[in-house]
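Researcher: Please translate sequence to structure tokens.
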Amino acid sequence: MKRVFLLIFLCSSFQGLLAVQIGVYQHGAVVRMHMGDCILVHHGFMGAFGAPSTPIDQEPCPEYTLVANDVVYVIVGKSSNQLIPLAETIDFRLQKNELAVRVDDAKHETKFTIKEMIVRSDWERLQRHIDEQMRASEDHETAMKTRD
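Model: Translation complete:
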């Protein structure tokens, strides 16, 4: 009987250990995308403080805003062919210093560099502020046109 309990305990702890290594997927929605400069990842001390390296290929990389439950991530692809559909819920997980994304239950993951992270409540407050500023600017322009 002790062996059965030991076997059950080992199997359940192995599954927990496997889940920790693989990582738990979170869900989020991509709300923004634009093509920008690729982020060069420097390795080591000399790479960080050495002369800036110039990229050979000036091809732009996609930059996405991914909204999760608690955090908003700005992630950058490593090449121009790393595309994620907009306004769709995707699965992602943090892996080392990158964000691994799985779209539509794909068998492989695509890794993105994390450029920025912000707490969702702060991001929503910032978005409201930007919207208010844009509305105020539009109201001001309309008022100036009607004065003329």
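Researcher: Any highlights?
Model: The beta strands are 26-36, 61-68, 71-76, 89-95, 98-102, 110-119.
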